[in-house]
Specification:
Largest sheet: 6 strands, parallel
Number of strands: 14
Number of helices: 18
Strand order of the largest sheet: 1-12-11-10-13-14
CATH architecture of the largest domain: 3-Layer(aba) Sandwich
CATH class of the largest domain: Alpha Beta
Bound molecules: iron/sulfur cluster
CATH topology of the largest domain: Rossmann fold
Shape: globular
Oligomer: single chain
């Protein structure tokens, strides 16, 4: 069966109950490091400011490229003109930080509650600051999960991409620079002449887009961005996500096939990296093989990671929960999962915790809020958010990715000796 057909046929447990996830503001933590002349101005409450500050830590050597324009209680009560306040904050910020070339006004639960229209605010402010692009997106926690912040941010960039019909490969998703450079080298060695990235490292390098653009998703949580790119004429290249030796090979192969790269040349280019990845994985397979794992829905990376852990490291999948299941983007990974695996979409947290307790998995991947209570009950856990913060894509990171799952088991073994 074709991957897309096989993915459609999979039975999925759908749950719509209480959820335990971070909001989309979290994406700022990795996005502000990636786009070096961007600033993320959250229009939110002190709670939003605390979330960012505690999750991102304090930048000792550089001024942070994110901040919060606090909506005070009087704003919430409609007593002050929040727009005027916002204009003032933007004016002060841009006067003090001339290096900012791209300013995101990031919506939050409070800005949505008072119906502050940040789209109109961005439009209003845009003409006033030559050389600075002002855009907006929502990072609110109302009905979202934390990786949707990146999706919303990248989707906001798509209308800004100039029309360009040139043949090119676009890598979509914020990857650490070191990983992005590795992929660029591989594509250059394969002979794909023009490779661009979204997001770019600098605002001025935002690539063009048109009917010659084919794109690979580096992350499985970019559904809105992909849709926007398609409306601009770009074409998605379906593939497994680049985790582990197999996933990375398949991902690179999708581009090589599309760009007419000779199969023998493809194999010779990827062979050294693929072998290094396999050797690194063999090192961890002894510890992970046969161990059971339960994914609670959090990062949206769950399906490709489950495929990697089951097929490349021999782990047993108890349940693969994901906040949202994008069947067509995940089709190749879903089709490669072992037969009969339980997939769930959405969450009813108490029911799911009961299933964890009944199954007693060796490892549970979950959000920070659930990890400590589960550890107290004797379960080994892995924070899902760490998988988004760490360099985990590609051949050279395959061993590190396996180690992220092996480490909690090693720690548990040490504690029980
Ligand atoms: S956006 Fe909403 S969920 Fe996120 S920190 Fe602010 S108030 Fe909390």
């Amino acid at each position: 069966m074709a991957p897309a057909r096989a993915a459609e046929a999979l039975p999925v447990l759908r749950e719509r109950g209480q959820r335990e996830v971070f909001c989309g503001l979290t994406g700022i933590i990795w996005l502000h490091r990636k786009v070096q002349d961007a600033f993320f101005l959250v229009v939110g409450s002190r709670t939003c400011a605390h979330l960012l500050q505690s999750a991102a830590g304090v930048m000792v050597f550089a001024e942070p490229r994110f901040g919060t324009a606090i909506i005070e209680e009087r704003d919430l009560a409609g007593l002050a003109d929040a727009n005027e306040e916002l204009d003032k904050v933007v004016r002060q910020l841009l006067a003090r930080r001339p290096e900012i070339k791209l300013l995101f006004l990031v919506g939050s639960c409070p800005s949505e509650v008072i119906k502050l229209d940040l789209g109109r605010a961005a439009q209003r402010l845009n003409g006033s600051y030559p050389g600075v692009k002002i855009l907006n997106y929502s990072g609110s926690g109302i009905e979202t999960t934390f990786t949707q912040g990146e999706d919303a941010c990248l989707a906001a960039l798509v209308p800004e991409m100039r029309e360009d019909a040139v043949d090119q490969l676009l890598i979509v998703g914020a990857l650490p620079d070191v990983v992005e450079d590795q992929f660029r080298r591989l594509f250059a060695d394969l002979g794909i002449a023009r490779v661009e990235t979204l997001p770019p490292r600098r605002a001025k390098d935002l690539p063009g887009i048109g009917t010659g653009t084919r794109f690979l998703l580096a992350q499985p949580f970019l559904g809105d961005t992909a849709r926007m790119l398609e409306t601009r004429g770009a074409r998605h290249l379906p593939a497994m996500f680049p985790f582990g030796a197999e996933g990375t090979t398949a991902w690179l192969h999708a581009a090589a096939t599309e760009f007419g790269i000779d199969e023998m040349h493809f194999r010779s280019v990827v062979a050294p990296g693929r072998e290094r990845a396999k050797r690194a994985l063999a090192h961890h397979a002894a510890r992970l093989n046969g161990k059971s794992i339960f994914f609670m829905p959090d990062s949206q990376l769950e399906v490709p990671l489950a495929r990697f852990l089951a097929n490349e490291l021999g782990m047993t999948l108890v349940e693969v929960g994901t906040p949202y299941l994008h069947r067509s983007h995940l089709a190749d990974d879903l089709a490669a999962l072992p037969a009969g695996v339980q997939i769930s979409e959405g969450q009813d947290v108490d029911k799911q915790l009961d299933r964890v307790r009944a199954a007693k998995p060796d490892l549970t991947v979950c959000g920070l809020g659930l990890a400590n209570p589960l550890e107290r009950e004797g379960f080994s856990t892995k924070w899902a958010i760490e998988l988004v913060f760490s360099p985990v894509h590609g051949f050279e990171q395959a061993g590190d990715l396996a180690e992220l799952f092996a480490r909690p088991l090693v720690r548990r073994d040490r504690l029980t000796v």
